[in-house]
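At your convenience, could you comment on the folded chain following this short note?
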Amino acid sequence: MLPKTDKKLDRRTAYTRMVIKTALFDLLAEKQLSKITVKEICERAQINRATFYRNYLDIYDLYEKIETELTTDIFADNKLEQSRYQLLDVIYHHQAFYREFFNSQLESKYIKDTVAGLADQMKTILLKRGSFDEATFELTYQYNYYGVIGVIKEWLNAGCPVGPHEFGDRLFAIVEKQYQE
């Protein structure tokens, strides 16, 4: 069991990180990440700069840690079909964050892993059929990857006019149709 001071520190640290993240989410609804300063985050969170830097290296470190928090649990069970819908649900519920994410062309380990998992599934299907050509497959994979990213970006920019599950059904049906017999 931790001493009381350690528990208090943990609660205080958790609270501080929460207000910092909330400040970033609020600011992202107003402007691009590249235009947000640590000073603005600190003012919005009502903390000092030293507190910010005690928790994060910079704004991009904060951004990356938030994305990791939002997506880590999704991919823990390795159930790709379920994970891809969960990822769309997270994107839907954090639209300002992910709109900035896609518009800034930041890379996501989790999104790449999801698309790579889909590629592995499709590769297995094609190998079983005996119609597998590595060069064509790689080109198709790149086409699908950038296409999926582009379609998600457009969905976000339109304000997610349909829910994540309906959107996912449509999107994944298009991709999977290419690999059906």
Notes: The chain has a mean pLDDT of 83.
